[in-house]
Amino acid sequence: MRSTDTASQEVRRPFLGSMLWIPLLLILVACGGIVYYGHQVARTLEQSVAASARAGGRATAHEIAGFINREHDRLHAFVDEKQAEIRQVLAHPDDWQAIDALRASLKRMFPETIAFTVTDADGSPLFEDFDGLVGAVCESAMRTFAQTIDFDGEGFEIPPIHPIPGAYHLDLMTALRFDGGQSGLFFVSVSPSRIAEILASAEKASGTRILLVKRDDPDLIEVTASGARDVLKDGFRLAPEALVPGYFSTDLPGTHWRLLVLPDGEGLADAVRGVYVKVAVLVLALLVISAALLLAIRRYEQRNSTLFTRSLQASVGRQRAILQSMVDGMVTIDAGGTIHNVNNAVTRLFGYQQKELIGSNVSVLMPEPDRSAHDGYLRNYLTTGESKILGNGREVTARRKDGSLFPVLLTLGESVEGDEHIFVGILHDRSANKEAQRKIEAQAIAIERSNQELEEISQIAAKDLQAPLQQIASLGEELGVRHMAALSSIEQTQIRSLAAKARDMSELVKGLADYAHVEREPVDSRVDLDAILGDVQRDLATVIAATDARITVQALGCVLGNAKQLRQVFWNLLDNALKFREPGSPPDISVSLAASGDESADSAVAVLVRDNGIGIPEDQQEAVFDAFHRLHPRDAYPGMGLGLSFCRKIVEGLHGQISVSSTPGEGSTFRVTLPRAG
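Structure (tokenized):
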């Protein structure tokens, strides 16, 4: 026994034998992969927080700018309406009854009003709501602004805001023309409480902290969700540590303010810290397990061959049990691609029995072209020794026993047993990940399409409706000013009411154009589709006669929906069928119910609208439902490209679906599925 120990001491084995270098490298690669993955997750969290802060900040800045512009518009309308009262106050500055009446009217229009001032064309105060309102800084600002105005011109640009540095209010200005050709400014100081409400609403929606700071002194807080700086007491200075990573800032044009969006720094730090803690635990666990295995192998190598063999067999048995219990599949192959061993996860993923796979070529699990690429990588590695796939995960397509395909993440390792190369592949099923990614991409496309359509519709509303309403309001105000003396009190009231209502309608249109939400109509009304189709055919009777079209309509029954909207849907479908026809070929159109063949037939009605028109290419059959999407020049087939887009919005708003199948040159079939009426 002692001689044996001596011999073993004389023949010292290196601590890391040649067979241990590959596992050690694989362990280091695995640790590096875990650390890299954790770092990427942390960066993704930080980027997501920054993107959210950026989007929220831009939206809030846009909302504040819009609010201030609207306030200036309202002030301009107020001054036009109250010119007589303003002249009365300027002529009799001691007439407190007139002053109180004007102040009350201004308070009703602007509840946050602090005080107001009237200046001449040079910006010098003619009347102050209370003594000392206009200080040197305010008067200098008004003079500077007055010098930029051409009071005799068609108009002038009013800055969006005139906050006075060091003050806790914001100031609104508008031009005023007096009798005798004189001009001046009407200047109102208001509390920024409404802006504070906008900040509070944005903070609640985004979960961030939003501040307005001074542009020239970024540490000085001007307005928060709680109000202006005068309510912040000693907390009006921004601590440097508040600017956490991912914060967003932007200047508000025409102001001395800068908008800051501060994400939840502590929450982000906790999330990032949690990621790195998990990475550290995984790496430590991997190192501990690996160190234990390496030490066990080292000890086994130092024993005699019999004991080593027994220990090795026991270790192999334990490893086999671990591999068999793995969630991911494991396949062992030789250099020729012959399968030597598989674990239980492979049989579960692919549907084969172990005896069906062992001895077969790995090609049964991997279809072309991934199989050819995989074989090419192995041949290149065995020939040149340069590995492109060992230790690197890559996505490939796998094939089950029933022939179905699914994506897997393949990670390949190598073991050298004498002169033979054994490759171990770990297969991770990515079907669930792919499906989730597909759904996310589909939702993103739908959201993008909806946002694009809303933007286009809002531009049309702003262009076509805003100008006429503004002209009506301006005309009513001008009539009231020029012919006030010739009108009775009732007529004067009606003129002012007309102008006010036009202004209100203009504001309403602007709001609708800004937000452009598509309202869903109620679907609890019983609609007779047969009556709808009859009305549509009567509307299109002239076109039907001119094209010599034949329309066949089957009895359709009743659905739940909105009669006006459904009439628009089928009018668009029949109008398209009449319009997009083959030259010289009379349209042949049929409207019928689809054959019931699924479980939803009792709760839904599927209507098919078939035609013999020019058809739609397969790659365009989804795009035709996009707003303003056209397949042909407008001079060939007139229209705006909105009909099918409106159809989809209406049908989906009624909890239905619309789709198309078509063959170019043979015609199209539109399928409209709607809730069945009980």
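The longest helix spans residues 21-81. Residues 1-11, 514-518 have pLDDT under 50 and may be disordered.
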